[in-house]
Amino acid sequence: MTRNGVFSRRQKLEKLDGFKSFDHPPPDSEELHVLAVDDSLVDRKVIERLLTISSCKVTAVDSGRRALQFLGLDEESSSVGFDGLKVNLIITDYCMPGMTGYELLKKIKESSTFREIPVVIMSSENILARIDRCLEEGAEEYIVKPVKLSDVKRLKDYITKEEGEGEKSEERVTLKRKFQDACDNSPSSSTPSSPTPSSPLSPFSSPLSSPSLLESPLRRLKTNDGD
């Protein structure tokens, strides 16, 4: 469950349900967009730097409320103007004033629009009860600070893998639907077959059981000679 201060929901599921993780996904074809949330300017700059080195597009905000505004989930304020910009990953600090990372996680998982976005919790405190609560609420990972470049690269690889698998699954569903529609709309090629006339003498029937032979002149002649 833990790997150098990293607590993963995937590893927990792997132990419970036989879930298999993939460490070597195919390379991504487009830049991933990460929303980073941390009230500490220093920590925010660090995570932004690591994500940039990993070729990720980064949007950094200083609070959970600002993150909700960015996503358009803040009921008190309108979106900050990034409507329609896809977010592939949200990484947030746990201890923040006003709204904790755990509360932000719950808000995101309650949203029908953003619940599928992976959320990673960062914290300088290694508290087991807090870790379990975040993972059970749906956090993808719980990383104990300082966050390292290897952590960011691993997360990027995982997100890329999941994005690729999701696209393949959608393609399979689309192809299956098109195939089914083609089968439903195609004209029937089967035509009713005309009944095959029965043979006068079936290979499985006895010659004596054929009415034509029983009533033939030869049969009657033999019968009369016997009399």
TrEMBL record:
Residues 33-160 form the Response regulatory domain. The modification 4-aspartylphosphate is found at residue 93. Transmembrane segments: none annotated. The keyword DNA-binding does not apply. Residues 161-181 have a biased composition (Basic and acidic residues). This is Response regulatory domain-containing protein. SUPFAM superfamilies: CheY-like. Residues 161-227 are annotated as: Disordered. GO terms for biological process: cytokinin-activated signaling pathway; phosphorelay signal transduction system. Keywords: Phosphoprotein, Two-component regulatory system. Pfam families: Response_reg. InterPro entries: ARR-like, CheY-like_superfamily, Sig_transdc_resp-reg_receiver. Residues 201-216 have a biased composition (Low complexity).
